[in-house]
Amino acid sequence: MSLRSYMDSIAPHFEKGGKLEALFPAYEAIDTALYTPGHVTAGASHVRDGLDLKRIMMTVWLCAWIPALVGSYFVGLQANEAMQASGLTAIEGWRGVFLNPMLSFDPNSWVDCLIHGLGYFLPLYVVVFAAGVLFEIWFASVRGHEVNEGYFVTSILYTLTLPAGIPLWMAIIGIIFGVVIAKEVFGGTGKNFLNPALTGRAFLYFAYPAAMSGDTIWVAVDGVTQATPLGNAAQGLDYGVDMVSAFIGNMPGTIGGESILAILLAATILIATRIASWRIMLGCVIGLVATVSLFNVIDSTNPMFGMSPLWHLLIGGFAFGAVFMATDPVSAAHTNTGRLIYGILIGLMCALIRVVNPAFPEGMMLAILFGNLFAPLIDNFVVQSNIKRRLARG
User: Fold this and answer.
1) CB atoms closer than 10 angstroms to residue 20
2) What gap in Å lies between CA 321 and CA 332, rounded to an integer?
3) Closest to 147 (Cα-Cα) out of 60, 38, 61, 25
4) 327 and which of 163, 276, 331, 374 could share a cystine (Cβ 3.0–4.6 Å)?
5) Residues 177-193: b if buried by 16+ CB within 10 A, e if exposed
6) Nearest C-alpha neighbor of 224 from the set 89, 62, 81
7) What is the three-class DSSP state of 378?
8) Are the C-beta atoms of 243 and 229 separated by less than 8 Å?
9) What digits encode the pLDDT tens for the residues 327-386?
10) What backbone phi and psi angles, to 5 degrees, belong to 358?
11) Which of 90, 147, 94, 103 shows the shortest CA–CA distance to 124?
């Protein structure tokens, strides 16, 4: 019996009236992840389109693996360099059980670096995915709505915004908060007004600040301290990285948010397939560059006022946020003009938070959540403006 035949044979148990009716969202989630749904529009007229939610989400998910793999390599490289410099020969904790027999911890071996980095990323991603999908299916079963492929994207983007050495239990708490509070309580995918991945990360940032900021968390080796370039900039220190290294992603930071090269490659695919809005990305860049350029002409003792727009684009999570987070099709603006305005607002807020409030040297996470709150209002103004203009034309 084929897998398709087996899924069809057990379907009646999960449908209305079946003994496992309460678990229908779990069955549907597995079925739609494996096969294209067979449902069609029942109305008299509809648009037939080969690009559905499943293909959109899976394309974004696959694109997210580009910065994930590149970021994992640099996580491993920095860890291997730190271990070599400190004379360490083994990984402490549970990761060492799996990785020690496989590695020589050679920073000159890209294989060693990639495997070492994946040893941090993959276990983190697995537990995040398992915990989040469990709670999503649970809430969907209770509330009677479907589970779709959106969580594939939420889980990987959330994981890529974390430091590599974060405790697994902490990452689990964050994703549960993001899924439940930012998504499921509003009815699931398509009804949330905040980005669930960023909401989960914001919760961790404020609930466990010592594990989400500072100098001790960015290199995945215990006892090694190294600040991010933005952290150094906020204190008026040398950034600790040149522009080439910043562009390729060889600097301390989150797992997948540092390589501009990898993010630009993913952005090219997402724009070419018309899955992500180039207007939002462009708006983010315009908002950031314009605001930072204005700050550059202001004389201030705050060192962030003197940071050039190019450095703002290269370091920190701005590029990752603009490409993957701000373009979330649910929580972003939906009109073309609104998308540009929405992106500009995010870029402006990111610059304000980074420069004016050095206590938050990153800024992009809070800027996107702020933009999410205003997205419906922006769309409403755009629609009302279009209506007034058409009425004026008669």
Assistant:
1) 13
2) 12
3) 25
4) 276
5) bbbbbbbbeeebbeebe
6) 81
7) helix
8) no
9) 998 899 999 999 999 999 999 999 999 999 867 778 899 999 999 999 999 999 999 999
10) -65, -5
11) 94
